[in-house]
Structure formats: structure tokens, C-alpha cells
Amino acid sequence: MRLVDANILVYAFTSSFPQHERARSWLDARLSDAVPLGLPWPSLVAFVRLTSNPRLFDRPVSPAVAWQQVEEWLGCECAWIPTPTPRHRAILGDLLRATGLRAEHVPDAHLATLALEHGLAIVSADTDFARFPGVRLENPFA
Question: Which fold has domain 1-142?
């Protein structure tokens, strides 16, 4: 099973990216599959924040429009939101201490924690996840 990083969601939604078609095809195929697909809150909230940011896009969408897309994804039968388990605090603490992270990698550590505690692979174009021991990474563009 898999957990989706925000960059895959942004690429799938935003047609101006060269990765758009591949990301959209990948996501559409997974969302129509019977295998559960993890769409964690950190990725969903980051998607809304990024796609509605006028400093990042010439024509950003409103947060309401981005949220409408989130609702559509979550409406798919196989979509689920991985939640922290009782091990979350310990795993996150271990990752933060063991990897010598900088501040910008803390959200990645949070996503890695969710993946580890649920036994999920992270689907992302971000190779920074390789810094976290035990995390399996799938890049749909590789």
C-alpha cells in the first residue's frame, strides 16, 4: 500500500507541469483501484496551500477550489486518511534525532512517520525521503 506526497497531488492537478499527465494518470489509476491509497492530512493540506499560493502560480486556484478537489479524491472508495498510531510520537522523535534534519525536512519526517507506522511506501518525486531509515520510496516518474 502507498501514501501520497503533496507533490504528486500538485502535479496531477496542475496542467502546467511537465509531470502533469503522468501524475494524473498514475493517481487516477490508483484511485479507481481496490487497493487502499493513503492520502494523509499533511499532503492534502499542503496541496491546498501550494495550489492556492499566488507566489507559486501565475493563476492559483482559491483554497475552496483546491478543497473541492480534495473532497473528490477523498470520495473515492479506496482513498483513506492514515492517522497516527500510539507509536507516532516515538517514531517521529527517532527520525528527528537520528537524521540530523534541517527545519524544511520536518514535514517530510512527519510523512515518513505515518508511512513507517502503517507499513506504506511513500509515493513522491522528492528524493529527500531516502534520508529516513526504513522508508520505501516510489517515484512514478523514475
Answer: Rossmann fold (3.40.50)
